[in-house]
Protein backbone atom coordinates (compact mmCIF):
# COMPACT_ATOMS: atom_id res chain seq x y z
CA UNK A 1 0.00 0.00 0.00
CA UNK A 2 1.35 3.42 -1.01
CA UNK A 3 2.26 5.75 1.82
CA UNK A 4 0.13 8.89 2.07
CA UNK A 5 2.03 11.99 0.98
CA UNK A 6 1.77 15.67 1.72
CA UNK A 7 0.45 16.17 -1.85
CA UNK A 8 -2.41 13.70 -1.15
CA UNK A 9 -3.44 15.79 1.83
CA UNK A 10 -3.26 18.98 -0.26
CA UNK A 11 -5.53 17.53 -2.97
CA UNK A 12 -8.15 16.32 -0.46
CA UNK A 13 -8.15 19.64 1.41
CA UNK A 14 -8.19 21.69 -1.80
CA UNK A 15 -5.07 23.66 -0.89
CA UNK A 16 -1.47 23.82 -2.06
CA UNK A 17 1.23 21.48 -0.69
CA UNK A 18 2.94 24.57 0.72
CA UNK A 19 -0.16 25.34 2.80
CA UNK A 20 -0.20 21.79 4.18
CA UNK A 21 3.48 22.18 5.07
CA UNK A 22 2.69 25.44 6.86
CA UNK A 23 0.00 23.73 8.93
CA UNK A 24 2.17 20.71 9.76
CA UNK A 25 5.06 22.93 10.83
CA UNK A 26 2.86 25.22 12.91
CA UNK A 27 3.36 28.41 10.96
CA UNK A 28 0.96 31.11 12.03
CA UNK A 29 0.05 32.61 8.63
CA UNK A 30 -2.78 30.17 7.92
CA UNK A 31 -6.44 31.02 8.48
CA UNK A 32 -8.40 29.01 11.02
CA UNK A 33 -10.73 27.70 8.29
CA UNK A 34 -7.82 26.51 6.14
CA UNK A 35 -6.07 24.95 9.10
CA UNK A 36 -9.25 23.06 9.98
CA UNK A 37 -9.61 21.72 6.41
CA UNK A 38 -6.02 20.53 6.35
CA UNK A 39 -6.26 18.89 9.78
CA UNK A 40 -9.43 17.05 8.72
CA UNK A 41 -7.67 15.76 5.60
CA UNK A 42 -4.66 14.67 7.67
CA UNK A 43 -6.92 12.74 10.05
CA UNK A 44 -8.93 11.16 7.20
CA UNK A 45 -5.86 9.97 5.32
CA UNK A 46 -3.81 9.07 8.38
CA UNK A 47 -0.94 11.21 7.11
CA UNK A 48 2.25 11.12 9.20
CA UNK A 49 4.78 13.89 8.50
CA UNK A 50 8.34 12.84 7.72
CA UNK A 51 9.88 14.21 10.90
CA UNK A 52 13.41 13.15 9.98
CA UNK A 53 13.27 14.94 6.63
CA UNK A 54 11.88 18.04 8.29
CA UNK A 55 14.59 18.02 10.94
CA UNK A 56 17.33 17.53 8.37
CA UNK A 57 15.96 20.46 6.35
CA UNK A 58 16.30 22.55 9.52
CA UNK A 59 19.83 21.28 10.17
CA UNK A 60 18.70 18.88 12.91
CA UNK A 61 18.39 15.11 13.19
CA UNK A 62 15.82 14.84 15.98
CA UNK A 63 18.18 12.42 17.71
CA UNK A 64 20.46 12.53 20.72
CA UNK A 65 23.23 10.08 21.54
CA UNK A 66 23.89 8.54 24.94
CA UNK A 67 27.49 7.37 25.29
CA UNK A 68 28.40 4.91 28.06
CA UNK A 69 31.48 2.76 28.72
CA UNK A 70 29.74 -0.62 28.91
CA UNK A 71 26.27 -1.87 28.02
CA UNK A 72 26.74 -5.08 30.01
CA UNK A 73 27.05 -3.14 33.27
CA UNK A 74 23.64 -3.15 34.99
CA UNK A 75 23.97 0.41 36.27
CA UNK A 76 24.28 1.83 32.75
CA UNK A 77 21.57 -0.46 31.40
CA UNK A 78 19.17 0.73 34.11
CA UNK A 79 20.15 4.36 33.53
CA UNK A 80 19.45 4.01 29.79
CA UNK A 81 16.03 2.59 30.62
CA UNK A 82 15.30 5.89 32.37
CA UNK A 83 16.91 8.19 29.78
CA UNK A 84 15.18 6.77 26.68
CA UNK A 85 11.56 7.45 27.75
CA UNK A 86 12.54 10.90 29.05
CA UNK A 87 14.08 11.73 25.66
CA UNK A 88 11.08 10.38 23.76
CA UNK A 89 8.77 12.54 25.84
CA UNK A 90 10.89 15.52 24.81
CA UNK A 91 10.53 14.51 21.14
CA UNK A 92 13.92 12.90 20.55
CA UNK A 93 15.03 9.44 19.47
CA UNK A 94 18.04 8.00 21.25
CA UNK A 95 21.19 6.54 19.73
CA UNK A 96 23.46 4.55 22.05
CA UNK A 97 27.23 4.09 21.80
CA UNK A 98 29.51 1.89 23.90
CA UNK A 99 33.10 3.08 24.20
CA UNK A 100 34.68 0.29 26.29
CA UNK A 101 36.54 3.15 27.95
CA UNK A 102 38.70 3.62 24.84
CA UNK A 103 40.15 7.16 25.00
CA UNK A 104 40.56 7.42 21.22
CA UNK A 105 36.94 6.49 20.58
CA UNK A 106 35.65 8.82 23.28
CA UNK A 107 37.77 11.65 21.88
CA UNK A 108 36.41 11.04 18.37
CA UNK A 109 32.85 11.36 19.64
CA UNK A 110 33.37 14.75 21.27
CA UNK A 111 36.00 16.10 18.84
CA UNK A 112 35.45 18.93 16.42
CA UNK A 113 33.02 18.17 13.62
CA UNK A 114 32.10 14.72 14.97
CA UNK A 115 28.42 15.53 15.33
CA UNK A 116 27.47 16.17 11.69
CA UNK A 117 23.77 15.44 11.22
CA UNK A 118 23.81 12.15 13.14
CA UNK A 119 22.71 13.68 16.44
CA UNK A 120 21.87 17.04 17.94
CA UNK A 121 23.41 16.59 21.37
CA UNK A 122 25.12 14.12 23.67
CA UNK A 123 24.69 12.67 27.15
CA UNK A 124 28.14 11.32 27.94
CA UNK A 125 29.54 9.11 30.70
CA UNK A 126 33.28 9.14 29.95
CA UNK A 127 35.68 6.54 31.27
CA UNK A 128 38.77 6.84 29.11
CA UNK A 129 38.97 10.65 29.16
CA UNK A 130 40.23 12.68 32.08
CA UNK A 131 38.88 16.04 33.18
CA UNK A 132 41.60 17.80 31.17
CA UNK A 133 40.72 15.77 28.07
CA UNK A 134 37.14 17.02 28.20
CA UNK A 135 38.33 20.62 28.06
CA UNK A 136 39.47 20.20 24.44
CA UNK A 137 36.14 18.90 23.12
CA UNK A 138 34.13 20.58 20.35
CA UNK A 139 32.63 23.69 22.00
CA UNK A 140 29.70 23.63 19.55
CA UNK A 141 28.53 20.21 20.77
CA UNK A 142 25.58 20.41 23.21
CA UNK A 143 26.87 18.17 26.00
CA UNK A 144 25.72 16.88 29.36
CA UNK A 145 28.26 14.79 31.29
CA UNK A 146 27.31 12.08 33.80
CA UNK A 147 29.46 10.61 36.51
CA UNK A 148 32.20 12.04 38.61
CA UNK A 149 33.42 15.04 36.65
CA UNK A 150 33.24 18.78 37.24
CA UNK A 151 31.87 21.16 34.63
CA UNK A 152 34.41 23.53 33.12
CA UNK A 153 31.61 26.01 32.48
CA UNK A 154 30.86 24.87 28.93
CA UNK A 155 28.85 21.72 29.67
CA UNK A 156 26.49 20.51 32.37
CA UNK A 157 27.43 17.82 34.86
CA UNK A 158 24.78 15.62 36.49
CA UNK A 159 25.54 13.18 39.29
CA UNK A 160 25.23 12.50 42.98
CA UNK A 161 27.52 13.60 45.79
CA UNK A 162 29.86 10.60 45.74
CA UNK A 163 31.93 11.69 48.73
CA UNK A 164 28.84 12.16 50.91
CA UNK A 165 27.31 8.89 49.68
CA UNK A 166 30.50 6.92 50.35
CA UNK A 167 30.84 8.50 53.77
CA UNK A 168 27.31 7.31 54.58
CA UNK A 169 28.07 3.80 53.35
CA UNK A 170 31.18 3.42 55.50
CA UNK A 171 29.46 5.21 58.38
CA UNK A 172 26.77 2.52 58.28
CA UNK A 173 29.44 -0.18 58.67
CA UNK A 174 30.89 1.70 61.64
CA UNK A 175 27.43 2.12 63.20
CA UNK A 176 26.83 -1.65 63.17
CA UNK A 177 30.06 -2.13 65.11
CA UNK A 178 32.65 -2.90 62.44
CA UNK A 179 36.09 -1.48 63.00
CA UNK A 180 38.43 -3.19 60.54
CA UNK A 181 36.93 -2.00 57.28
CA UNK A 182 38.39 -2.59 53.83
CA UNK A 183 37.63 -0.78 50.57
CA UNK A 184 37.59 -2.51 47.17
CA UNK A 185 37.73 -0.39 44.01
CA UNK A 186 40.31 2.37 44.39
CA UNK A 187 41.71 3.70 41.08
CA UNK A 188 44.46 6.28 41.69
CA UNK A 189 44.99 7.41 38.10
CA UNK A 190 43.70 10.41 36.09
CA UNK A 191 40.55 8.74 34.74
CA UNK A 192 39.61 7.11 38.05
CA UNK A 193 37.70 10.08 39.46
CA UNK A 194 34.70 8.00 40.59
CA UNK A 195 36.86 5.65 42.62
CA UNK A 196 38.90 8.50 44.07
CA UNK A 197 35.79 10.25 45.37
CA UNK A 198 34.61 7.03 47.00
CA UNK A 199 38.00 6.60 48.62
CA UNK A 200 37.68 10.14 49.97
CA UNK A 201 34.35 9.19 51.50
CA UNK A 202 35.92 6.05 52.99
CA UNK A 203 38.55 8.19 54.70
CA UNK A 204 36.03 10.84 55.78
CA UNK A 205 33.85 8.28 57.56
CA UNK A 206 36.85 6.99 59.51
CA UNK A 207 37.88 10.52 60.44
CA UNK A 208 34.34 11.38 61.59
CA UNK A 209 34.35 8.34 63.87
CA UNK A 210 37.86 8.98 65.15
CA UNK A 211 39.15 5.74 63.63
CA UNK A 212 42.51 5.27 61.88
CA UNK A 213 42.60 4.13 58.24
CA UNK A 214 44.63 1.03 57.50
CA UNK A 215 46.00 1.95 54.07
CA UNK A 216 46.74 -1.69 53.29
CA UNK A 217 42.99 -2.39 53.34
CA UNK A 218 42.33 -0.05 50.40
CA UNK A 219 42.45 -2.39 47.41
CA UNK A 220 42.68 -1.13 43.83
CA UNK A 221 40.80 -2.69 40.91
CA UNK A 222 40.89 -2.22 37.15
CA UNK A 223 37.09 -2.11 36.87
CA UNK A 224 34.01 -2.37 39.08
CA UNK A 225 33.08 -5.92 38.05
CA UNK A 226 32.34 -9.17 39.89
CA UNK A 227 35.77 -10.65 39.13
CA UNK A 228 37.44 -7.56 40.59
CA UNK A 229 35.53 -7.98 43.83
CA UNK A 230 36.10 -11.72 43.99
CA UNK A 231 39.84 -11.44 43.40
CA UNK A 232 40.34 -8.57 45.84
CA UNK A 233 38.33 -10.33 48.55
CA UNK A 234 40.47 -13.45 48.14
CA UNK A 235 43.59 -11.34 48.65
CA UNK A 236 42.10 -9.82 51.80
CA UNK A 237 41.27 -13.26 53.20
CA UNK A 238 44.87 -14.37 52.68
CA UNK A 239 45.97 -11.81 55.25
CA UNK A 240 46.63 -12.73 58.87
CA UNK A 241 44.26 -9.98 59.95
CA UNK A 242 41.34 -9.92 57.42
CA UNK A 243 38.66 -7.22 57.62
CA UNK A 244 35.31 -7.57 59.36
CA UNK A 245 33.57 -5.35 56.77
CA UNK A 246 34.12 -4.19 53.20
CA UNK A 247 32.94 -1.11 51.31
CA UNK A 248 32.67 -2.13 47.65
CA UNK A 249 32.66 0.59 44.99
CA UNK A 250 29.82 -1.07 43.05
CA UNK A 251 27.18 -3.72 43.64
CA UNK A 252 28.95 -5.93 41.09
CA UNK A 253 32.15 -5.72 43.17
CA UNK A 254 30.08 -6.54 46.25
CA UNK A 255 28.57 -9.55 44.50
CA UNK A 256 32.04 -10.87 43.64
CA UNK A 257 33.27 -10.30 47.19
CA UNK A 258 30.29 -12.16 48.65
CA UNK A 259 30.91 -15.07 46.26
CA UNK A 260 34.46 -15.42 47.58
CA UNK A 261 33.40 -15.16 51.21
CA UNK A 262 30.76 -17.86 50.85
CA UNK A 263 33.19 -20.09 48.94
CA UNK A 264 35.55 -19.83 51.94
CA UNK A 265 32.80 -20.91 54.32
CA UNK A 266 32.35 -17.46 55.86
CA UNK A 267 29.03 -15.88 56.73
CA UNK A 268 27.73 -12.55 55.46
CA UNK A 269 27.21 -10.39 57.45
CA UNK A 270 28.11 -12.27 60.64
CA UNK A 271 31.79 -12.75 59.76
CA UNK A 272 32.19 -9.99 57.17
CA UNK A 273 29.63 -7.28 56.40
CA UNK A 274 29.44 -6.02 52.81
CA UNK A 275 28.02 -2.81 51.36
CA UNK A 276 27.92 -1.90 47.67
CA UNK A 277 27.06 1.05 45.48
CA UNK A 278 24.57 1.69 42.60
CA UNK A 279 21.48 -0.26 43.77
CA UNK A 280 21.25 -2.51 40.72
CA UNK A 281 18.32 -4.90 40.46
CA UNK A 282 20.47 -8.01 40.93
CA UNK A 283 21.48 -6.77 44.37
CA UNK A 284 17.86 -6.90 45.55
CA UNK A 285 17.34 -10.56 44.67
CA UNK A 286 20.54 -12.41 45.63
CA UNK A 287 21.14 -14.14 48.94
CA UNK A 288 22.11 -12.18 50.86
CA UNK A 289 20.55 -9.06 49.40
CA UNK A 290 23.16 -6.33 49.10
CA UNK A 291 23.18 -3.18 51.21
CA UNK A 292 23.93 -0.29 48.90
CA UNK A 293 23.96 3.38 48.00
CA UNK A 294 21.02 4.05 45.69
CA UNK A 295 21.41 6.97 43.25
CA UNK A 296 18.12 8.40 41.99
CA UNK A 297 18.57 7.15 38.42
CA UNK A 298 15.20 8.54 37.33
CA UNK A 299 16.20 12.03 38.46
CA UNK A 300 19.63 11.75 36.84
CA UNK A 301 17.98 10.80 33.53
CA UNK A 302 15.33 13.50 33.71
CA UNK A 303 17.76 16.28 34.63
CA UNK A 304 20.23 15.22 31.93
CA UNK A 305 17.59 15.22 29.19
CA UNK A 306 16.10 18.55 30.35
CA UNK A 307 19.47 20.26 30.34
CA UNK A 308 20.43 18.81 26.97
CA UNK A 309 17.16 19.94 25.39
CA UNK A 310 17.78 23.42 26.82
CA UNK A 311 21.25 23.49 25.29
CA UNK A 312 20.12 22.22 21.91
CA UNK A 313 17.32 24.77 21.74
CA UNK A 314 19.41 27.80 22.65
CA UNK A 315 20.92 30.07 20.02
CA UNK A 316 23.44 31.40 22.55
CA UNK A 317 25.87 29.49 24.79
CA UNK A 318 24.29 28.10 27.96
CA UNK A 319 26.59 28.30 31.01
CA UNK A 320 27.55 24.92 32.43
CA UNK A 321 26.12 23.99 35.82
CA UNK A 322 26.68 21.31 38.45
CA UNK A 323 23.45 19.43 39.15
CA UNK A 324 23.02 16.92 41.96
CA UNK A 325 20.48 14.11 42.11
CA UNK A 326 19.51 12.57 45.41
CA UNK A 327 20.87 9.33 46.83
CA UNK A 328 19.98 7.16 49.79
CA UNK A 329 21.51 4.43 51.89
CA UNK A 330 19.59 1.15 51.72
CA UNK A 331 20.60 -1.36 54.44
CA UNK A 332 19.89 -4.96 53.44
CA UNK A 333 20.92 -8.46 54.51
CA UNK A 334 24.62 -8.11 53.68
CA UNK A 335 25.05 -5.70 56.64
CA UNK A 336 22.03 -6.13 58.95
CA UNK A 337 21.35 -9.83 58.54
CA UNK A 338 18.36 -11.93 57.61
The separation of the N and C termini measures: 62 Å
Count helical runs: 13
Biggest sheet overview: 6 strands, parallel
H/E element sequence: HHHHEHEHEHEEHEHEHEHEEHEEH
- Mind telling me the CATH class of the largest domain? Alpha Beta
Mean pLDDT: 89
Count all strands and give the number.
12
Number of spatially distinct domains:
3
Q: Indicate the structural class.
A: alpha/beta
**Helicity level, as a percent range?**
40-55%
Which regions have little confidence, pLDDT < 50, spanning 5+ residues?
none
CATH topology of the largest domain: Rossmann fold
CATH 4th-level superfamily of the largest domain: Response regulator
- What global shape is seen? elongated
CATH architecture of the largest domain: 3-Layer(aba) Sandwich
- Compute the gyration radius: what is it? 25 Å
Strand arrangement, largest sheet?
Answer: 2-1-3-4-5-11
Strands, helices and their partners?
Blueprint: H1 6-13, H2 17-24, H3 32-45, H4 51-57, E1 63-68, H5 74-89, E2 93-98, H6 103-110, E3 121-124, H7 131-134, E4 143-146, E5 156-159, H8 162-175, E6 181-186, H9 193-209, E7 218-220, H10 226-237, E8 245-248, H11 251-263, E9 273-275, E10 292-295, H12 297-312, E11 322-324, E12 327-330, H13 333-336
Parallel strand pairs: 1-2, 1-3, 3-4, 4-5, 5-11, 6-7, 6-8, 8-9
Antiparallel strand pairs: 10-12
Helix pairs in contact: 1-2, 1-3, 5-12, 8-9, 10-11
InterPro entries: HTH_LacI, LacI/GalR-like_sensor, Lambda_DNA-bd_dom_sf, Peripla_BP_I
Domain HTH lacI-type: 4-58
Organism: Paractinoplanes lichenicola
Amino acid sequence: MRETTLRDVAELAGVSPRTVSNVVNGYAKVTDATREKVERAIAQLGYRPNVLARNLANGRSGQIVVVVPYLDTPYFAELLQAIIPAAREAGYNVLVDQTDGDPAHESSLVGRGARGLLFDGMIFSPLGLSQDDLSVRDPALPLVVLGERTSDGTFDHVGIDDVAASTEAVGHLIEIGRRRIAAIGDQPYPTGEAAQLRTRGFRAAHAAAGLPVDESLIIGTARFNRIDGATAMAALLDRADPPDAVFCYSDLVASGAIHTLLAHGLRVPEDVAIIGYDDIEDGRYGRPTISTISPDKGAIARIAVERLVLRMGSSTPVPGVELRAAHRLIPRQSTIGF
